[in-house]
Write a structure and sequence with these properties.
The protein has 279 residues and is mainly β. 0% of the residues lie in helices and 52% in strands. The strands form seven sheets. Strands 18, 19, 20, 21 and 22 form a five-stranded antiparallel beta sheet that branches. The chain has a four-stranded antiparallel beta sheet with strand order 4-5-6-7, with no helix packed on it. Strands 14-15-16-17 form a four-stranded antiparallel beta sheet, with no helix packed on it. It holds the Pfam family WD40.
Length: 279
């Protein structure tokens, strides 16, 4: 499934196998979206510009629990994970904290995670040594890793960017979890999360405020990153910075990218949603 939010005030769920809508649209303005599957049930999280969090069953629209205030100011990004069988929502706050909440109850799992010294602008989750972790990026130019079982940081901050971090994403490469981050310094950096070290770098030409990359999988054993650049999507090998495929040019500016199963890439441009299939 793919979930999208638009300026028409709706949130829609799409079946990636058929391209059709999988459920009736939900009437809600959402600044941030996240979804998780737990115990065979899909939960959809919608976060409004004022920081209000709502969790619902996307098929029925039924609310799972009462809406609550994130207490983080504006939420700038969100991701989900299931540490030790417990579905959680991880939120990146304008108050410089990382929130972790139980998606079943809506209650905080930990006190807000602190360490970033600027707004937390991006978050992704993955498994590291069999444990669920969150990877976050911030205005403070760093990337941090957090253990979602203990709420503690994993190692120190990853440094190298010279301007605000604008996106993070994760993928498993040869059995090792890696993260990619973009920043307003015009670079995409690849991090080995097991060794907590930078292992690749690529120059990107997107407008600084729009720099976004998504790791969409591997090709020939090497990672592939999709980079949003105005009316095009560019594919790079973040280990070397070289092209990893032909650019995809679109008729309108690309607004969002998301990795989908089997190396596919979901993207939104104008009022359209499309899925690219690797070949």
């Amino acid at each position: 499934m793919a979930v999208t939010a638009a300026a028409d005030g709706t949130v829609r769920t799409w079946d990636l196998a058929t391209g059709r809508q999988a459920a009736a649209p939900l009437p809600a303005a959402a600044a941030v979206l996240a979804a998780v599957v737990t115990a065979g049930r899909t939960l959809l999280v919608r976060i409004a510009p004022d920081g209000t969090v709502r969790t619902a069953d996307p098929a029925t629209g039924e609310e799972v629990h009462r809406p609550y205030d994130s207490a983080q100011g504006r939420v700038l990004a969100a991701a989900t994970a299931v540490p030790d069988g417990r579905p959680v929502l991880v939120t990146a706050g304008s108050d410089r904290t990382v929130g972790v909440r139980d998606l079943t109850t809506g209650e905080p799992v930990f006190e807000p995670l602190t360490g970033h010294t600027g707004r937390v602008t991006a978050v992704a989750t993955t498994l590291l040594g069999g444990r669920a972790v969150a990877v976050t990026g911030s205005w403070d130019r760093t990337v941090r890793v957090w253990d979602l079982t203990t709420g503690r940081p994993v190692g120190g901050p990853l440094t190298g960017h010279t301007d605000w971090v604008t996106s993070v994403s994760t993928v498993v490469l040869d059995g090792t979890p890696v993260a990619a981050s973009t920043a307003r310094d015009g670079t995409l950096r690849l991090w080995d999360l097991a060794g907590m070290a930078e292992i690749g770098r690529a120059e990107i030409s997107a407008a600084p405020s729009a720099a976004t990359a998504v790791l969409v999988g591997t090709a020939g054993g090497r990672p592939v990153a999709a980079v949003r650049e105005e009316c095009a999507v560019r594919f790079l090998d973040p280990l070397t910075g070289r092209r990893a495929g032909a650019d995809r040019v679109l008729p309108e500016p690309v607004q969002a990218l998301a990795a989908a199963p089997d190396g596919r890439l979901a993207m939104a441009f104008g009022s359209h949603v499309a899925v690219l299939v690797p070949r």
